[in-house]
């Protein structure tokens, strides 16, 4: 399973990239706005920190403008994946950019039918938002199960399921059990994944016993 980081915070991405756990990055207009920086600059910096795909999202809503924005964004670095919303214009843009060899991430997916359309449009990634479905008392993980099942029925689809809007470690664990190919995780969730009280307690005990020996390894 690939791990992407869901943030436009360059410092956070740099620190996490150093762990070797990061396979890519996703951003969206809200995350770019939160960074308070120029989009092209932030995306270029992020692209230099990871060889993996870095999703940069278009903000136009009409096809021609969306396509122009997508072409501009992919020109920032060779590892940019252009993110488009799951709308008619978005799918048309997805088809056009994919045919030009650009990776396209189709975002804001909330139904299996939408995911099917994205695969038919040649998307490299489909981003179903599990947390936002859970927020409205709908089972986000059922959507992942449905999409994984549908895509497995059609092996010629090359679209990877990129689980998005992850809010806590169990979202990731459940997505992994279902066989989703990618998860995009807020930095805080990646750090939560590491944590277990028995690890902390066990390490403390090992180190206390080790100190009593008076030895050092090096
Ligand atoms: C994915 O690409 C989106 O940026 C993100 O996962 C949305 O998460 P949110 O619902 O927590 O805003």
UniProtKB/TrEMBL annotation:
Protein family per UniProt: Belongs to the transaldolase family. Type 3B subfamily.
Reaction(s) the record says it catalyses: D-sedoheptulose 7-phosphate + D-glyceraldehyde 3-phosphate = D-erythrose 4-phosphate + beta-D-fructose 6-phosphate
Biological pathway: Carbohydrate degradation; pentose phosphate pathway; D-glyceraldehyde 3-phosphate and beta-D-fructose 6-phosphate from D-ribose 5-phosphate and D-xylulose 5-phosphate (non-oxidative stage): step 2/3
This protein's UniProt keywords: Cytoplasm, Pentose shunt, Schiff base, Transferase
Lineage top rank: taxon: Bacteria
Name of the protein this chain belongs to: Probable transaldolase
Active site: 83
Organism: Siccirubricoccus soli
Biological function: Transaldolase is important for the balance of metabolites in the pentose-phosphate pathway.
Primary subcellular site in the record, as a coarse category: cytoplasm
Subcellular location: Cytoplasm
CDD domains the record matches: Transaldolase_FSA (cd00956)
Gene name of the encoded protein: fsa
Membrane-spanning residues: none
Database matches in InterPro entries: Aldolase_TIM (IPR013785), TAL/FSA (IPR001585), Transaldolase_3B (IPR022999), Transaldolase_3B/F6P_aldolase (IPR004731), Transaldolase_AS (IPR018225), TSA/FSA_arc/bac (IPR033919)
The protein's Enzyme Commission number: 2.2.1.2
